[in-house]
Design brief:
Blueprint lengths: L2 H16 L16 H4 L4 E5 L4 E3 L3 E3 L3 H13 L2 E4 L10 H14 L16 E7 L7 H9 L6 E8 L7 H8 L4 E2 L3 E4 L7 H9 L6
Helix pairs in contact: 3-7
Length: about 210
């Protein structure tokens, strides 16, 4: 077994126990926009977030990743594009985990709604929950359809034990000619009180000009 497969097996175990397109919306100048994002950089947050039945936090109306995405926009002034699919609506946690695993094993690429023009943006945050070691398959549909090469990409995840998983590596694989910065992960059960943690992470991001 190679190292990736071994790590994947460990992440899968963690996920098993811990296992909403729309056009970009403008954040009218985040009130606390940080200098490194307001000084010549235009940022976008691309994310998938799952509301409904979630591990640890129960049945939630707003997905964990959306909350982190909103923090990023509030703090940096970044616009947003939410990757939306209704395939998982109303599913209980265990059947959702089983479906996510099957999608990954079969390489399925579920469709998402809407589209986004990424041309104006040079910095793009890419966020989602960690399902079986990496982003949900619908995000890989986005990766196949939208070219982000040449941009600065910043992965982030919400999870209950998997950290970043293979998300950063998979972003690098999808966009070999992009600059992929170190990612950020947060426990899903911490996001509702975690704005300061997100702020501290953002302050330490070093962007080139």
């Amino acid at each position: 077994m190679n190292i990736r497969n071994l790590l994947f097996a460990v992440l899968a175990l963690l996920t098993a126990t811990a296992c909403n397109g729309q056009s970009a919306t403008s954040n009218e100048g985040g009130a606390n926009a940080m200098s490194q994002f307001s000084d010549g950089h235009k940022a976008l947050v691309v994310y998938f977030s799952h509301a409904g039945d979630n591990y640890s936090v129960g049945n939630i109306e707003v997905g964990n990743t959306k909350i982190v995405a909103d923090y990023i926009s509030q703090l940096t002034g970044a616009d947003q594009f939410e990757i939306v699919t209704h395939k998982y609506d109303g599913m209980a946690y265990k059947p959702l985990c089983d479906l996510a695993k099957a999608e990954q094993q079969q390489g399925e690429l579920p469709p998402f709604e809407g589209s986004v023009d990424v041309t104006p943006y040079d910095v793009i945050f890419i966020g989602g929950p960690v399902w079986w070691g990496t982003y949900p398959q619908v995000m890989f549909t986005f990766f196949k359809q939208v070219d982000l090469n040449g941009k600065t990409l910043i992965p982030f995840t919400t999870h209950e034990g998997s950290g970043l998983g293979f998300c950063a590596d998979d972003v690098k694989d999808a966009y070999p000619n992009a600059t992929v910065l170190a990612g950020f992960s947060m426990y899903g059960h911490d996001v509702r009180t975690g704005k300061k943690q997100v702020e501290n992470w953002l302050k330490n991001i070093k962007l080139t000009h």
